[in-house]
Amino acid sequence: MLSGPAGMGKRLIAEEFAKALMCSDAGHDGACGKCNNCKYFDSHTTPDVTRVYEPSETKMVKVDFIKDNVVAESYLKPQFARTKTFIIDFDYLGVESQNALLKSLEEPKKDVVFILTSSNTDSVLDTVMSRVTEIKLDPYSEEELESIVRANYPELEDTKIKTAVYNSGRIPGKALSLAQEDSGVSIRHEMNSIMIAMPTCSYIDILEDYCEVLTSFKEDSKIIASSLLLFLDDCARLINYPDCRKINNEIDRDAIEEFVASNKHITTLKLGRCSEAVNTFLRALEVNSNYDSTASAMLLRIHEELKK
């Protein structure tokens, strides 16, 4: 189970892993990309790899599809490769579909491999998680993201690459998307400014001004959450290690250091509860909760922890 925020590259990693399993001449760097099996894989014509991604006509994958195309298929021998490989995005599997997979996950045939992905393992059944090995994709460093963007857009100027990376919440897919846009608005800088104002702001500031800012970035809710978590992480680092050489928000370092120094009442325990408020915000959005009320609740909870 590859887990991590949307845009972290889970599907790309799953595809590369499956291709290496399919390849007849795979090496330390993965698939050769030249053999017939690699060509079958790239053209999506191999019967040995089954992909279960977002359905085209329904919101979630139907349980009958899982039974017919995964469970039943897993009993068949591979035709070209060493394994039958199933890549399944659990973001599109409801409870029934997940339950239909349990026996296959618990007692797979020796030549069957399941590569699963999830942007939110809270929505994955405990009985599923107990049957898999979870690999959490850690956030990329800004240096790594800059290399990724530069490799995809070699003609792009450094300033634009750094801006795209800074605004991406350390999510590769978002960094690549922002690199193609001309927006100079920094979501992370906006979120940092809101957090720095939290100890002394009023409820009206939150409910009128700050909620309006979050609403203006509604399409980038995951970036908002990631930015808030990076800020909280920086505060925790500076509380525990005031001379910490590197933090997530180097651009706003002076402001964050001043925030920590002037708010001695803020503890790592309070920061932890703020992080939980952010994660609650994300979980609520996964089940289509009202964005405005969910964002307001998160900001009010954070304010309760950080206010003087």
Provide a compact summary of the structure.
The protein is of the alpha/beta class and 308 residues long. It has 14 helices and five strands.
Task: Please count the helical segments.
Answer: 14
**Helix percent band:** 40-55%
Give a short account of the largest sheet.
5 strands, parallel
Instruction: Kindly estimate the percentage of residues that lie in beta strands according to DSSP.
Output: 5-15%
Low-confidence stretches: none
Tally of DSSP β-strands: 5
Mean pLDDT: 91
> What is the ordering of alpha helices and beta strands?
EHHEHEHEHEHHHHHHHHH
**Which structural class do you get from the secondary structure elements?**
alpha/beta
Widest β-sheet, arrangement of strands: 2-3-4-1-5
Whole-number radius of gyration?
22 Å
Distance between the ends: 42 Å
**Global shape:** globular
Q: Which SSEs are present, and which pair or pack?
A:
Layout: E1 2-3, H1 10-22, H2 36-42, E2 49-52, H3 63-71, E3 84-89, H4 95-106, E4 112-118, H5 126-129, E5 135-136, H6 142-152, H7 158-167, H8 172-179, H9 187-197, H10 203-216, H11 221-240, H12 253-261, H13 268-286, H14 291-306
Parallel strand pairs: 1-4, 1-5, 2-3, 3-4
Helix pairs in contact: 3-4, 6-7, 6-8, 7-8, 9-11, 10-14, 11-12, 11-13, 13-14
